[in-house]
Specification:
Protein name: WLM-domain-containing protein
Number of helices: 8
Order of helices and strands: EEHEEHEEHHEEEHHEHH
Pfam families: ubiquitin, WLM
Distance between the termini: 64 Å
Number of domains: 2
InterPro entries: Ubiquitin-like_dom (IPR000626), Ubiquitin-like_domsf (IPR029071), WLM_dom (IPR013536)
Structural class: alpha/beta
Largest sheet: 4 strands, mixed
GO molecular function: proteasome binding
Organism: Hermanssonia centrifuga
Strand order of the largest sheet: 2-1-4-3
Number of strands: 10
């Protein structure tokens, strides 16, 4: 009876296994646990052909053949423990934020628009990483960063967006998609990871996809109504960050809540301007003129990227208002 030779890859490492044809699928998973420390309950095997239904069926019955390449996804018990610790910390921070929301806010500088207290309804109500993918704690941290991004929270409050679940898209499940909004806010799924599962996509790119998917809370199709609102959201995010760099937003008086805006938008705006040419600041340029120039440059770049993003969005259908 010839042995079944399998090549199982997990996180960039390939394991060569030799098993008897009558070996059970449970035995294969036990062997993989020895090699990778991923318990069978966390293992997900991807291969062509029939998928296993019962753990005591043979690997032949499961559709595995000699020379077949198998990809395994899954996290170790230690990583799952780290994820629980991250979740516990997230819940602790959520509780602190809820308590602080009841306290009076103070401003750093005067602003023309009055401050309105946050409404806890308009937010992401839960974060759900895909536990069978590598490094769940890192995915959780990225989802939490997106959910608590001050500019994103600002537009969600302003437009009264409610999203039940913020989660991720696995690259192998829908490789053509970068984002998906299910049922106008029931769940938003974002592609966080690179195709090889070894890393994560740049934060700025993922956040732009998030703005796109938030627009689908209102409009389903990529029509003119969608484009107008999506452009507005991108503009409001850029304006929020520009204003935050100048200290004109109302912020919490607690030191831990002070917002430190990313310099990404300003750096990119200094590189990209209308028409695609570089620009050197003019000494006589006023503060407002400079702010408007940087904002226009940012919006010009975002419009071009949005045209490409529409091809990678899985959301389509009637608008949420209809």
């Amino acid at each position: 009876m010839s042995a079944i030779e399998l090549n199982v890859s997990h996180r960039g490492t390939t394991y060569s296994l030799s098993l008897l044809p009558d070996s059970t699928f449970d035995a294969l998973q036990a062997r993989l646990e020895e090699l990778t420390s991923v318990p069978p309950s966390n293992q997900k095997l991807l291969y062509k052909g029939k998928k296993p239904i019962f753990g005591d069926e043979t690997i032949i019955d499961a559709g595995l053949k000699s020379g077949m390449k198998v990809q395994m996804l899954g996290s170790t018990a230690e990583e799952i423990g780290e994820l629980r610790n991250v979740e516990d910390e997230h819940q602790r921070k959520e509780r602190i934020l809820r308590e602080r929301a009841q306290k009076p806010q103070t401003k750093l500088r005067n602003t023309s628009s009055p401050h309105k207290p946050s409404d806890l309804r308009y937010r992401f109500h839960s974060i759900e990483p895909l536990l069978h993918l590598p490094n769940p704690p890192a995915a959780t941290a990225l989802l939490n960063r997106l959910a608590n991004d001050p500019a994103i929270r600002h537009v969600m409050q302003k437009h009264e967006f409610v999203v039940a679940v913020l989660t991720e898209l696995a690259p192998h499940e829908q490789p053509q998609l970068l984002g998906l909004n299910m049922n106008a806010g029931q769940a938003i799924k974002l592609r966080l990871r690179t195709n090889d599962y070894e890393g994560f996509r740049p934060y700025g790119e993922v956040r732009r996809v998030l703005c796109h998917e938030l627009t689908h809370n209102v409009w389903g199709d990529h029509d003119n109504n969608f484009k107008e609102l999506n452009s507005q959201l991108n503009r409001e995010v850029a304006e929020f960050e520009r204003a935050a760099t100048e200290g004109t937003h109302y912020l919490s008086s607690t030191a831990g809540d002070i917002y430190q805006p990313s310099s990404q938008l300003e750096a990119e705006a200094q590189t990209y301007v209308l028409g695609g040419t570089s620009h050197t600041p003019v000494a006589s340029e006023s503060r407002e003129e400079r702010r408007r120039r940087l904002l226009d440059a940012t919006m010009n770049r975002l419009r071009k990227e949005e045209e490409e993003l529409e091809q990678s969005c899985g959301t389509a259908g009637p608008s949420a208002n209809h």
